[in-house]
């Protein structure tokens, strides 16, 4: 795997019910099961050729499949458009399927419109991050309104909510080349393989994954990068009939929005980039930044645990309890009733999963406490939600797409010797997360298909862009917020002094500022900081 997913904002309600409030990540929801993906059949309707208007059809089956029902007063319509596999720019132009070949990818769209809509401004295009998360799913979840953590009426009354699955993701010509067995092996592997034999086996696993994907897709893998997807997003803008783009991007979606702003600055109406990725960080620097973010978030969790012993059964020393659980799992993993072993990797990813939202802290404490008593159910629940693993042992294509996009984007390829050195160095500096972030870089080192790095410049000619950062964000650390705003040249930083991954719409202060910008183009005042509560 590559470094921990920057991804994925927003809720995953379990089928048949809605959670009260969003958690931090679409695939990281504490306390609910991974929903089935919406059907991918010919009933989705015809595919609009490049440059032609799509045919929209009613699709109530999408919210039905995800949640069990649609939101009250909301109409759901779906369409598919075709985009060139290769827009003909960057390193990917060396791949096959150039713009003159007629070969295309299909992009799945959903449009959600409130029955109370008035004085319509246009469409709000949303992306949840990842890369690899479904924007179609996210638009559905956001449609359920503020009572369930969705978008406020101030937005849904004025905009259609439009979600799209980026190329390679979910319903949009999905990439699928990693077996369930290899994903099980990857997530379950020792997060800090210290012996040379264990390190070599980890390298071999990543090489096998890369070889399998290269055999299936060849040089087409370079076509799943962010710049290509940003150009697709302009096709989405045209398909919904907007002269300019209004966009809400979470986590990796901030990178997608930033690249769009550089490519099409005159076509930007308003962009909200929440959970900023610093586009100028290369693989090693980005991995270390994220390591710091997770260590800081875990320290915040441990401090909460010590201050709330009645709610945290592993108090007062949460770090000691978690470290002990991982160490014990390396030599004597707990078995579940179905025979699965709660190895060190699964325990580690349960920790990762819980840190994307403050609401996950108590669940992590209970899961570790139960594991100590011989019950790994809570650990698997958290870890499986992160991994996109269903109860039947099958995975979505989340991490296939995550690898394809991240590795197409990434030009830096550290050597195995360099990774081995970083593993040791980061273990000393960041004992819980450092080694795992170091060895995770093997994913792109062993990935085939070529590279197509995205641009990292100013959005000259674009209007002000709101960049939102959360001080306790583990996956996209707060320091990246100002870096992204500065790179764009037109960024305005909005800060939430809270915990978890991304901020909007968590509190009234954040919500009011973002709503005013989206609806009225009122830019938040410089230096605005919103309290945690």
Would you give an account of this structure?
- The protein is of the alpha/beta class.
- 39% of the residues lie in helices and 14% in strands.
- It contains 18 helices and 13 strands.
- It has helices spanning 61-66, 135-142, 153-156, 180-188, 196-217, 226-239, 252-263, 283-307, 318-331, 344-354, 361-372, 377-387, 398-409, 416-429, 434-439, 442-445, 479-488, 508-520, and strands spanning 47-48, 57-58, 74-84, 104-114, 122-127, 159-164, 245-250, 268-274, 334-335, 341-342, 465-472, 491-499, 529-530.
- Strands 1, 2, 3, 4, 5, 6, 7, 8, 11, 12 and 13 form an 11-stranded mixed sheet that branches. A two-stranded antiparallel ribbon has the order 9-10.
- A hairpin with a 5-residue loop joins strand 9 and strand 10 (341-342).
- Helix 6 (226-239) packs across helix 7 (252-263) and helix 10 packs across helix 12.
- The protein is globular.
Assign an overall shape.
Answer: globular
Count of individual helical segments: 18
Distance between the ends? 35 Å
Instruction: State the major sheet.
Output: 11 strands, mixed
How much helix is in the residues?
A: 25-40%
Number of strands: 13
State which percent range the strand residues make up.
5-15%
- Rounded to an integer, what's the Rg over CA atoms? 22 Å
pLDDT averaged over residues:
90
Structural class: alpha/beta
Stretches where pLDDT is under 50 for at least 5 consecutive residues are 7-43
Quick gist of this model?
By secondary structure, the protein is of the alpha/beta class. It has helices at residues 61-66, 135-142, 153-156, 180-188, 196-217, 226-239, 252-263, 283-307, 318-331, 344-354, 361-372, 377-387, 398-409, 416-429, 434-439, 442-445, 479-488, 508-520; strands at 47-48, 57-58, 74-84, 104-114, 122-127, 159-164, 245-250, 268-274, 334-335, 341-342, 465-472, 491-499, 529-530.
């Amino acid at each position: 795997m590559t470094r921990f997913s920057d991804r994925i904002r927003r809720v995953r309600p379990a089928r048949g019910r809605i959670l009260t409030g969003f958690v931090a990540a679409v695939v990281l929801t504490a306390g609910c099961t991974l929903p089935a993906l919406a059907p991918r059949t010919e009933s989705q309707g015809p595919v609009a050729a490049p440059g032609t208007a799509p045919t929209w059809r009613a699709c109530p089956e999408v919210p039905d499949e995800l949640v069990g029902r649609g939101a009250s007063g909301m109409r759901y319509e779906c369409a598919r458009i075709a985009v060139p596999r290769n827009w003909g720019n960057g390193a990917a132009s060396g791949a096959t399927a150039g713009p003159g070949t007629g070969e295309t990818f299909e992009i799945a769209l959903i449009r959600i419109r409130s029955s109370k809509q008035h004085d319509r401004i246009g469409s709000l295009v949303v992306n949840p991050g990842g890369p690899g998360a479904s924007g179609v799913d996210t638009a559905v979840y956001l449609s359920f309104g503020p009572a369930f953590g969705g978008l406020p009426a101030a937005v849904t009354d004025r905009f259609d909510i439009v979600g799209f699955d980026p190329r390679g993701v979910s319903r949009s010509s999905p990439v699928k080349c990693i077996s369930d067995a290899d994903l099980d092996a990857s997530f379950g592997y020792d997060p800090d393989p210290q012996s040379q034999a264990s390190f070599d086996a980890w390298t071999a696993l990543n090489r096998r994954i890369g070889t399998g994907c290269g055999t299936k897709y060849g040089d087409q893998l370079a076509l799943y990068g962010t710049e290509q997807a940003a150009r697709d997003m302009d096709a989405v803008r045209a398909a919904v009939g907007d002269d300019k783009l209004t966009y809400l991007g979470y986590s990796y979606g901030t990178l997608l929005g930033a690249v769009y702003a550089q490519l099409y600055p005159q076509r930007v109406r308003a962009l909200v980039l929440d959970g900023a990725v610093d586009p100028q960080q290369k693989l090693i620097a980005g991995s270390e930044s994220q390591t710091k973010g997770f260590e800081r978030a875990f320290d915040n969790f441990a401090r909460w645990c010590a201050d709330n012993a009645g709610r945290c059964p592993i108090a007062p020393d949460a770090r000691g309890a978690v470290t002990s659980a991982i160490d014990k799992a390396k030599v004597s993993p707990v078995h579940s009733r179905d025979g699965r072993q709660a190895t060190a990797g699964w325990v580690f990813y349960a920790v990762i999963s819980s840190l994307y939202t403050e609401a996950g802290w108590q669940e992590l404490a209970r899961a570790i406490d139960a594991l100590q008593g011989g019950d790994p159910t809570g650990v698997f629940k958290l870890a499986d939600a992160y991994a996109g693993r269903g109860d039947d042992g099958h995975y979505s294509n989340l991490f296939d797409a995550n690898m394809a996009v991240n590795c197409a984007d990434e030009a830096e390829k550290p050597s195995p010797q360099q990774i081995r050195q970083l593993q040791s160095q980061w273990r000393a500096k960041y004992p819980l997360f450092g080694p795992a972030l170091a060895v995770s870089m093997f994913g792109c080192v062993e990935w085939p298909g070529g590279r197509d790095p995205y641009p990292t410049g100013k959005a000259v000619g674009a209007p002000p862009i709101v960049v939102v950062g959360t001080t306790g964000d583990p996956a996209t650390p707060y320091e990246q917020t100002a870096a992204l705003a500065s790179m764009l040249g037109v960024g305005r930083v909005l800060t939430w002094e809270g915990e978890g991954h991304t901020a909007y719409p968590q509190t009234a202060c954040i919500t009011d500022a973002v709503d005013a910008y989206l609806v009225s183009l009122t830019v938040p005042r410089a230096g605005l900081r919103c309290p945690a509560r």
